[in-house]
Design the sequence.
């Protein structure tokens, strides 16, 4: 797990008038809205006697109150009121907890898990299609993996496994023909363009009979972003049908990952098709989880010496290189044992 990055803590719609607990990087946090509607994020542990602030309530002072003794914490983590001392009483200088920067984008609450100044933080990944409701229809879903976030991200950008793990749109007999046509990498992200060959259509093929000709090419453009450990999968079914799957993968802890998923499509943009889109997306994630959760080791190896890679794995290698730089050169890897309570 890496620090000094933006991660998604929760859906925007989940945080309303009550505090909400969120777990990221093995630690518990509290999310709450103030009177202006802004979401704030603090450590969930009260400095007084360790109460869980997410079990408390919000107050008229734009604070979150601890359910144990009612101490009120503002958006900066400072105690503003101690009920047992009365109004106007001085608050000890040490009476404060850690606060974290937040932003709301794409229907998600992003929290910066680190101490870098604002100018040095990597940006939240772009997703312009989300706000383009005239041309794209969004759906939201999520998936929890019993796997490390690094394994989840690598699986998301690995198109070679499609031929074997996803029978709905992968085709084993064409595995050798699938290929990476183009690849680019920066210090914090990577993108590629791939050509896949889906399986032959069976029967009337349902709605897919409108989408492609039998044995037609499908163009897939995977991308990864270190910030948010995001994966963006742009799928061009044909010249007029496209969909994008954008997932922000949050490390709950070393072996649990929560994926916040938004899919947008430029076809069949009526609500009647949303339920089917969610169902199909969940099916794909479940197929992936069946494989990823059984990988050994369950974390991404630091060295490639224990594995054998081939040409089709080069984009995953790009992800590993970006990650490795931030571990070895920047020292951003979290020591989970040192952080354990």
Sequence:
């Amino acid at each position: 797990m890496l620090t000094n990055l933006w991660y998604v803590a929760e859906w925007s719609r989940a945080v309303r008038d009550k505090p909400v607990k969120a777990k990221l990087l093995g630690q518990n946090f509290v999310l709450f809205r103030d009177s202006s509607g802004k979401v704030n994020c603090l450590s969930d542990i009260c400095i007084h006697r360790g109460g869980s602030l997410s079990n408390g309530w919000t107050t008229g002072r734009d604070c979150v109150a601890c359910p144990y003794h009612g101490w009120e914490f503002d958006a900066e983590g400072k105690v503003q009121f101690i009920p047992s001392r009365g109004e106007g009483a001085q608050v000890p200088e040490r009476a404060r907890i850690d606060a974290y920067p937040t932003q709301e984008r794409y229907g998600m609450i992003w929290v910066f898990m680190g101490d870098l100044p604002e100018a040095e933080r990597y940006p939240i990944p772009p997703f312009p299609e989300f706000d383009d409701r005239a041309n794209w229809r969004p759906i939201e879903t999520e998936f929890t993996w019993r796997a490390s976030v690094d394994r989840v991200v690598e699986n998301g950008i690995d198109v070679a496994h499609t031929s074997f793990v996803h029978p709905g749109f992968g085709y084993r007999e064409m595995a050798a023909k699938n290929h990476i046509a183009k690849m680019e990498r920066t210090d914090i992200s990577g993108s590629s363009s791939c050509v896949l060959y889906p399986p032959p259509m069976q029967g009337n093929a349902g709605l897919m009979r409108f989408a492609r000709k039998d044995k037609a090419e499908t163009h897939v453009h995977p991308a990864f972003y270190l910030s948010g450990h995001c994966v963006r999968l742009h799928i061009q079914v044909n010249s007029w049908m496209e969909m994008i799957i954008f997932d922000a993968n949050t490390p709950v802890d070393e072996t649990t990952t929560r994926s916040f998923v938004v899919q947008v499509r430029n076809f069949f943009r009526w609500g009647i098709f949303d339920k089917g889109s969610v169902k199909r997306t969940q099916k794909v994630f479940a197929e992936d989880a069946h494989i990823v959760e059984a990988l050994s080791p369950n974390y991404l190896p630091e060295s490639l010496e224990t594995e054998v890679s081939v040409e089709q794995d080069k984009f995953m290698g790009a992800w590993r290189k970006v990650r490795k730089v931030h571990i070895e050169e920047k020292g951003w890897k979290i020591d989970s044992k040192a952080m354990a309570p």
About this structure: Residues 274-292 form the longest helix (19 residues).
